[in-house]
Design goal:
Layout: E1 6-9, E2 16-19, E3 23-24, H1 37-49, E4 54-56, H2 65-74, E5 82-87, E6 89-91, E7 97-100, H3 104-118, E8 123-128, H4 137-149, E9 153-159, H5 163-172, E10 177-181, H6 193-200, E11 203-207, H7 239-259, H8 263-272, E12 278-280, H9 287-295, H10 303-312
Parallel strand pairs: 3-4, 4-5, 5-8, 8-9, 9-10, 10-11, 11-12
Antiparallel strand pairs: 1-2, 6-7
Length: 331
Amino acid sequence: MSRMEKRTLGTGSAALEVSAEGLGCMGMSEFYGTSDEGEAIATIDRAIELGVTFFDTADMYGPFTNEKLVGKALARHRDRVVLATKFANVRGENGEFLGIRGDAEYVRSACDASLARLGVDHIDLYYQHRVDKTVPIEETVGAMKELVEAGKVRHLGLSEASPETIRRAHAVHPITALQTEYSLWSRDPEDTILPTVRELGIGFVAYSPLGRGFLSGQIRSLDDLAENDFRRHNPRFQGENFQRNIDLVESVESIAREKGVTAGQLALAWVLAQGKDIVPIPGTKRVTYLEENAAAAGIELTAEDLTSLDEAFPKGATAGDRYPSMSTIDQ
């Protein structure tokens, strides 16, 4: 297949060129069943061969082990890739969740810890993973700005932030990217988030563009998920919600068959078609799924295709909340 096209996140001094699709690395270490470091590294190597240059991790994944894995896998490719990581979700050594921190002292210490685990001298894109509602965003982004000035970080990002928070943050230092869940089954950003970032010239990074794997059509029952898979506790995978969402996916599968592509590829192509300022980061830990996802970047959707998908999967049709608790989302 041809080399993947590039897209630009942010504008002016905040502009950052990345591949049209990135690779979400979270599942290589936690949340989605068992991990296999050898397969994970092979997946990252194959991604680079296919033109993927944008890799997404966070300090909380593992916890702490995903950054080490990604840093190890990317060490010999460092000058060819864009490395993004995140801070703010605080976890203990045993994996316990200890809240959210955005105070300046924590920002500085979290960055130094990530640099050490990744084995790099700078982070290309550093996100606040979740907004700390007890700390003014000006303090958090002010500390992140100091990291840029110190050469430890090149570009700044936010994740799951509200329009007001985005505006206030952008006034302190140009924000390159806003990362939020976005897919056929999570279209909330279209209401206020996408208009805000487009007005400000901020790029949009779509995580879970395959609806946590649901839109791939590979999940037909909870038995398809490992015992320790966090999706078992996700409202969209529970009870009646599960069956209603399966029905929606089946309508996507039927359109995909007509186009000669997989449901997952169609779902990714849909995200890519929403604007050149949007970069999806489908996550996988297997080479086969990586290859399937990367091929979606070459799929052209017609106006008729997009209309059919809108009719098959109307905005707001998905049953259930995105998380068991939405309290950590800055709304």
